[in-house]
TrEMBL record:
This is Uncharacterized protein. The keyword Coiled coil applies. Gene3D superfamilies: 1.10.287.1490. The lineage of its organism: Bacteria, Pseudomonadati, Bacteroidota, Bacteroidia, Marinilabiliales. Residues 121-205 form a coiled coil. It comes from Saccharicrinis fermentans DSM 9555 = JCM 21142. Keywords: Coiled coil.
Length: 253
């Protein structure tokens, strides 16, 4: 933070997490939360009025900065994001494309991790098999050595037992590595499922926002950046209505 200007790009994420940890640790609410602050925030050197989650996993929060505190239309704009509306113009860079590519990247990355884990599991299973074969061979030799009471035989018996002990320790290590890889793979699989869910959510957002204009600031739409924001398009009303219905009908938050 520099003076009264917020530099942290994840400021809204941070304070929303603090809110959840403080007030919803045991039970989540179905509220839409608007944070207000006299602090400023800029984007490319321009003061922004607020921020609202749209392409994030948690879409219940928005924040109004100093530049938007006395602008009712700015509140409506950010609430529009929370309720599933994109900008009415094409963002450059395209935030929807960025979110989609991020989800696809997570899917690919975690699938690669799963494949690498599976390869390691097979490798360790083969090592266990090889170790068991060696142990079986050493035990056969051990039985033969036990038939002799010579000093050389006793020395060999000691060596064989040490080798068997080492192989058993290695087998324990291999089994632990397999268990670790399997546990990690379950984490990676859940991440893939989460990213696939995010892709489905993004597709739904795109379907509910079928039209965007190339020229920013040329309409009276609340999701535009203009001085005359006072209306929503029909598809935006429908998008918000659907989002509210789905949100309040969800069993699990």
């Amino acid at each position: 933070m520099d003076g009264y200007t917020i530099k942290d790009a994840n400021f809204l994420r941070v304070i929303s997490n603090i809110y959840i940890e403080t007030y919803e640790k045991t039970q989540k609410s179905r509220d839409i939360i608007i944070f207000t602050t006299a602090l400023q925030k800029t984007n490319n050197g321009i003061l922004i009025s607020g921020e609202g989650f749209l392409y994030k996993a948690s879409d219940r929060f928005c924040i109004m900065y100093d530049a938007g505190l006395d602008r009712p239309a700015a509140y409506v704009h950010e609430l529009g994001h929370v309720l599933g509306c994109e900008h009415s113009f094409v963002d450059i860079p395209d935030k929807w494309e960025q979110a989609k590519n991020k989800a696809l990247s997570r899917i690919n990355e975690n699938n690669e991790n799963i494949q690498a884990g599976d390869v390691d599991i097979v490798k360790y299973e083969e090592k266990i098999s090889d170790a068991n074969i060696k142990i079986s061979t050493l035990k056969s030799k051990l039985e033969l050595m036990k038939q002799s009471n010579s000093a050389t035989a006793q020395k060999n018996i000691f060596t064989l037992n040490k080798n068997i002990e080492t192989l058993n320790k290695n087998i324990s290590k291999y089994k632990a590595a397999i268990a670790n890889n399997k546990a990690n793979n379950e984490i990676y699989k859940q991440r893939v499922l989460n990213a696939e869910k995010k892709l489905a959510e993004l597709s739904s957002i795109k379907e509910k926002n079928p039209y965007r204009f190339f020229n920013q600031g040329t309409t009276s739409n609340f999701m535009d950046y203009s001085s005359n924001m006072n209306d929503f398009y029909k598809w935006q009303w429908m998008a918000m209505q659907e989002d509210v219905e789905k949100y309040y009908n969800k069993v699990d938050l």
